[in-house]
Amino acid sequence: MARSKSEQPELEGLGDTVAPQAVAQEAAVHVLPEGLTYDEAVRQLEGLVAQMESGQLPLEALLGAYRQSSALLGWCRDRLQGVEDQIKRFDSPGQAG
Asked: What is the pTM assigned to this prediction?
């Protein structure tokens, strides 16, 4: 039985609160907001994980949330690697000021 729009669970952490169908559609193209900070990405990821763990998402929304989570996780890992690389350059001999 299909849920009415008012009965649909909503996901937080993708800017404004959005319906699961919108998350599924957005996640399908793995679009991350421009200017996203690491802390914002982690908050969004935590929100998506909580929604997935709740067991309340329809299958399509669950898949979309998983894809978006995967994109966010990859972005966070890349960001951390970039920061680690910068630290290594600062700490390498000949770079000290």
From this structure: 0.62
